[in-house]
Task: structure prediction
Amino acid sequence: MKIKLAEQRKQKPDFSKLGFGKYFTDHLLVWEYDADKGGWQEQRIEPYDDFKLDPACCSLHYGQGIFEGLKAYKTEDGKVTMFRPRDNFERMNRSAERLCMAQFDVEEAVNGLVQLIKIEEEWIPAAEGTSLYIRPFMFGTEPFLGVHPSRRFLFTVILSPVGSYYSGGLEPTRLIVEEHYTRASQGGTGEAKCMGNYAASLLAGEEAKKKGYDQVLWLDAEYKKYVTEVGSMNMMFVIDGKVVTPMLDGTILRGITRDSAIKVLKSAGYEVEERKVEIEELVSAARDGLLEEAFGTGTAAVISPVGAITYKGSDIIINGGKMGKITSWLYDRITGIQRGRYEDEFGWVKEV
Ligand code: COI
Result:
């Protein structure tokens, strides 16, 4: 590991007004891969600065790029921790495989990240609802114009002190079911955390925002019948006391918060079903008074209540538009494990 520290440190933002992803720390981690130089090179920590890229850099043309999102916390007893970092890097390797990109050693990635976090410790906000968001990403850097996999990649980690992802914090969001555009189809890249998935979702998201919604709830591409996810989060519904969530079918992100939520709920005795969820099932459950809660799960979104879902012009109002009991219990459990308020019974917390 080569470390070059910044000569000048940035002025830190007001940690009580962070928003999401607006400020970046003083350093980043860079790890280059070059197939012609034997693969992965020595990791480097350097001052945060612009990249210099060849205009023919292949990922600028063909989008060979993937990313991850995880968080570091300052716990009440002053420790610095990360939540499930290995799982994120393992998922990143799966994304890399799908996008024909170089895979890396997960332990080495975690070690590099630990060193970066140690250097940037002062940037970790401590207040409840805040954290240091960690954004690993990797893209092809080889300059060429033919369509083929890159032989060079840049793996980078940047850090951003954050507050809540939604400007309304834990205020329930309003979703609209997207009936025209689709996010992912069978055999596509829906499960990979690749840049193009997010680019492809922007137009639907902008159109939804113009109509006053926070996010789009995506349906499956083939039948436009099954609920899948919300791009920035996986979805869960409480129907007649049971927690129901769309099963992982290759088109849905394998959410780490989703997985954590399922395990925490099950260990507390809740029934959780991972299966196909028809949008019409939600409509009829709401009509029968059985759709009790809806919430999203994600690293950025944490556990995020959903207050209303619009489908075919009609609104499904959930729990009177208020955060439900299971949602707020789960928010407390997950953030409590992450911040060290509850025992880490699943071994998810890594001390830095
Ligand atoms: C995350 O939750 O970390 C994500 O990567 C989602 C992104 C849209 C902020």
Remarks:
- The mean pLDDT is 97.
